[in-house]
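Service request form, structural biology core

Requester: graduate student, group of Dr. S.
Request type: structure prediction, single chain
Budget code: on file
Notes: please return the result as C-alpha cells.

Sequence provided:
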Amino acid sequence: MRRRLALLGATLGALAAGGLLHWTGAAAAGDAVWAAGTTLALIPAVWWVVSALLAGRLGVDAIAALALGGALAVREYLAGAVIGVMLAGGRVLEDHALSRARRDLTALHERTPRSARRYEDGVPRLVPAGDVRPGDRLLVPSGETVPVDGVVASGDALLDESALTGESLPVEHRAGECVRSGVVNVGQAFDIRATATADASAYAGVVRLARETEAGSAPVVRLADRFAAWFLPLTLLLAGGAWLASGDAVRAVAVLVVATPCPLLLAAPAAIAAGLSRTARHGVIVKGGGALETLGRARTLVLDKTGTLTEGRPRVVDVVAAPGGDPERVLRLAAAVDQMSAHVLAAAVVGAAQARKLDLPEPREVSEIPGTGTAGLVGGRRVRVGRLDGARPGGWVAAQRARAALDGAITVWVTVDDEVSGVVLLRDAVRGDAGRTLRRLRAAGIARVVMLTGDRAEVAEAVAAVLGIDGVLAERTPLSKVEGVRDEARRATTIMVGDGINDAPALAAADVGVAMGARGTAASAEAADVVLTADRIDPIADAMDVARRTRRIAVQSAGAGMGLSLLAMAVAAAGAIVPAAGAVVQELIDVAVILNALRALRAARGTRLPVDRPTADLLRRFEREHAELRPPLDMIRAVADRVGLLPPDEALADLRGVREFLADELLPHEHDEEARLYPAIARVLRDPEATVTMSRAHAEIDRLVGRLDRHLRMAGDAGPRPDQLDDLRACLYGLHAVLTLHFAQEEEAYFSLVTGPAGQ
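Core staff response, request fulfilled:
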C-alpha cells in the first residue's frame, strides 16, 4: 500500500509540475516532466504484466502498459501523465476498497487478547495471554477483553459478545457458566478460571479461520481472468482498426486508455471481500469467496440433528416415582449422586434439581462406571443412578420404558438399596430458532431439507415432523453419513451443517460444509467451508442472504462497468475522445464500479424480519421468564398423575401448591405478555391479527385456571371428593398440555425473531 501511495504521489507531482511549467511558458520542460511521470508509471505496469505472465496469466495490465507506451510513442505526454496518475490512483483505490471491504475480518485480528491479569499470591498481575494455563484464576476488569476460555469463578459477568456472534446486546453469565475469549466485559469486574490456553481458546480459532478467507477464489472473480483472454485481443483489434481507418495513432492510444483497467477486475474482488466481511459481522466465518458464492447457489440443506436442530443438551422433562414414591425425593437423590459426575446427563439432572431449589445432601463413597452410571451413599442408603440392567419384575418399569420410547426420551433410573425408586426422563429439545430459520432458508432458495443423524429413527422422525423436514436419514454411521451427503450433492448444490467430530467427513463431502464452531470440534471446523461462531443456526440464513446479494452486486457492477468501458472504447475509436480525456472517463467508470461493489458492505433486510430495540428487549425479557417457568410446569403434570393416589389432605396441599404457582408466577407473566408483548409484535409484523391465536391460548389458560379454582372451592378444607377426581385430572393435564404447546409456539414464532441468546 505504501509503495502504491508513493507511486501515486510521484505521478501526481509530475502531472502538476508539468502543468505549472506549461502555464509559465516552459512547454518543452513541462513535456519532459510529463514524460518522466509516464515512464515512472510504465515501469511498475510492465512488472505487473511480467508477473502475470510468470504466473501463467495474461491480464489486462498489458493494456495499461501499452497505453503508457503508446502515449510516449505519439508524444501525448499529457495523456501519459494523466494515465500514470489514474493507474496509480486506481491501484490505491482498489487497495482501499478491499481494505474497507475486509475491515470486519481485520478487526477480528486486531482485537486478539494479548495480555491477562493472573492472580499471583492473591494479587492480579499483568502477564502475556500466552502465559495463561488451564486452572489459572484471572481478573477481567470492566471494559477489558476476556483473554482465554474459562468459567466464571465469582460475580456475574455482563459481556459484549458481538465480536464472536454479531449480537449487539450484552449477555449475562452467572458463576459456573462458561465464557469464551474475545468477548468484552461491559459490566462489573469478575474472575474466571481458565479452561484453555490462549492458542486453544475460541477467539484464536476464529482469528485463524478469518485469515483463511480469500476473495480471489470466487468463481465470479476467476471469471475476470477468463475475461482477459478475449478482452485484450478485442481491445488491440479495436485500437488497431481505429488507427488503420483514420491513419491517426492517437486514436489507437485513446482506445487503449479508456480500456485501462478492466472494471471487472476491480468490482468482483471488492464485492466478494465486502460480502466476506459482512458475513463475519453476522458471526459467520466463510473460508473464501468460492464458498460464499456456492452458499448463495445452494438448493439442498442437510442438517445433523443433535446440537444443530436440537440444543445438544438434554434436559429433564419428567420425574416419575415408583408407585407410592415421591418424584421430588427421586430427583433429590439422583442429583445428590450425580453432582459428582461430569456426564452430560448428570449435569441435566443436577440442573433440574437446582431449578426446583432442592437441597442436595453430600454423598459418600461415590463411584462412576462409564456407560452404566453413578453410585454412592446418601443418608446411609446405597443410591444408583443410570442404566437399569437385568430383568426387573413389575409392569411399572415396562410402562415407563414404553413411554420413553414413544416420547423419544432418555431414561435415567434411580434405585435405592437395589429397589427401583423412580426414573428421570430427559429429552434433547428442538432449538427455539430452528423452525423460523428453516423457513427463512427456504425463502432464501433452499428447496429440500434433510436430517442426517446417528440417532434412532423414531426420535429423528419426531423432530422432523415438528420442523417440517423433507427427508430423514437416521441411524447413520459417520461413513454412511458421507454417502448420504454425496447422494444429495449429486442432485443439487448441497450445504451440510454439523457440530461433532463424527460430522467432519460429511462436512468435507458437501459442496459447502458448515460447522457449529461455538462448541464444535476442531476437526469439524477444519473440514468445513463455513464456521458459525455462535451456538445458533440462524446465521446460516443471514449468510445465504449476504451471499446471494453479494454475487448479484458483483455481477451487476462488472456488467455495468464493462458496458460503459466498451461504449467509451467505441467513442474513442471514432475520434470523439482524446487520450487525456479518456483517462479521466475510465477513472470515473472505475470509481463508480467500486463504489457500487462496496454496497455489499451495507446491511440489507434479506429474509430476516427487522425488530426494533424496545421490542427486542421485551422478547428477551419474556424468553428469560419462560426459562424460569418451564421447570414448575412439570409440577402440574406430576400433581395430575398422583391426585387420585394420595389421601385427600395431601392431594389438597398439592393442588394449592399448583394454584399458588399459577396465581403468583404464571398468570402475571401471561397477562403481561397480552398487555405489552403482543401489541409490540403486532406492530413489528404489521398485522393486528398476528397474535390472535396466542391470545386465544391465554383465554384457554385463564379458563382452565378458573376451573381449578372452582374445584378447590368445592373441595373446601377436606380435600377433593372422589367425584371430582376425573375432572381434576383432565383440568390439570389440559393445563399442562396447553401451556407446553403455548410456550413452544411463542418461542418459535416470536422469541426467535431476536438473534442471539437472551441471557442466562
